[in-house]
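Run log, item B.
One chain of 369 residues. Sequence copied directly from the ordering sheet:
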Amino acid sequence: MNTNLKVVLFIFVVVGFYVGFASSIPQIESRPPAETKLNADMSPEALAQAGQQIVTGDKGGCLTCHGLGQPGPRAPDLQGVGARAATRVAGQTVEGYLRNAILNPCAYLVEGYDCLMAGMGLDRRLSPAEQKAVIAFLQSLGGQITVRLTAVDLAAPSGRGASGGPEFIGATGPDLFTEAGCVACHTLQAVGAAGQVGPDLSGLGARLTPDTIRLSILDPNAFIAENCPTGPCISPSLMPPNFGERFTARQLETLVNFLASLGGPTSGTPAVAQARTPPLAVTVAISSPTTVSQPTQAPSTAPVDRSTTVLAADAPSARAETRPSLSPTPSFYLFIGVVVAVPTLTILLGTGLAFAMMTFSRLKAQGYK
C-alpha cells in the first residue's frame, strides 16, 4: 500500500477513535415538558385528551404519586374521580370541586393520605386553559365532561412557570427548598422540615459532594437511599424528574450550595460523596412536594463554597442551555484539555508526517538521494 495512503488512513483511524470516545460519554439532560396545543374550538374529548397528556407527562407530574387504575405510591387512584367528585362536597359542582382540589389540594384530603400536592404548584405551572384541560380529563374518568375552553381562558395570563418564566421566586437555599415543596417529603433541621417520605437531608454536606447533590436533583434515580423514615426507600425514586426544568440555573446552584453547606466542611473542601460507599448511598429525593408551616429554626449560616459554581442568567434560554451541566472543576478542565489537545496534536503531527513523506517521495522521484 502507498505510504501516503497509510498515513492518511492512520489519521482517520485516530480521529475516529476520539470522536467515538467523546460520543460515548453519558450526557445529563433535562428536557422541558412537551407543549400542549389548546384552542377554543376543541371538542370535549380532545380537551380531555390534552389534559391526559398533562396529567401523565412531566408537565403535571401527577402520576409521581397518584395511580390510574390502582392506588398510587403516595396518593389516591384517579380512576373514577369524575364520579366521586359529584358527592364529595354538598352543593359543589364536579368542575368546581376538581378546580379547588387542583389549586387548593389540602382543602380536600382523602382519608388515609397526607397533603403532599400543594408544593407541586399547579397554579404556577399550568395556565388557566391547561387547568381546564386537566379538569376535563379528570371529569372523563367516570363522569361527564362539562368544562369548556373560552377565548378568555386562552388569553388569561399564565402563572409563574406556565409560559417559560421562572416558576420559583426564592433567592436563598432555604426559600427554594420550601417553595419547591421539598419540606413535604424530607426532614431538614435547618428549615424546620419534618417530612417522612424521603431520606433525612440534615447534614447532607458531610455525606455528599455538591456534584453528587446536583446530579441527584437532575436525575433522581442516580442514587437511591437505602433507608427512609418509614422503611426502605422506593425505587424508582418518587422524586419528580423535572426539577432541572423547573429551576433556573442560578436557583439550582443556590439550592445545591445550601444543601452542600449543611454539616459539610467549612474550608471549601468537598465532602466525600456517599455514593462511593454504596451501602450508605443517599439520593436527594423529592416526592410530590407540598408546603408546610413556617420554619421554626433559622437557616444554616455555614459558609458556602462557590469556587466551582458557574451561574447563568435566569432567562429561559439560558436555563435551557445551562441547567443540565455540572459545575466545572479543575479535573473537568483537565479532561476537556486532554480530549481536545490529543486529537489536535495527532492531526497536526499526522499532517506534518504526511507532508514530509510526500515531499520525500517527490524528491526521490526527481533523483535526489
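Observations after the first pass:
- The chain has three domains: 44-155, 173-328, 329-369.
- Strands lie at 187-188, 193-194, 227-228, 231-232.
Flagged for discussion on Thursday.
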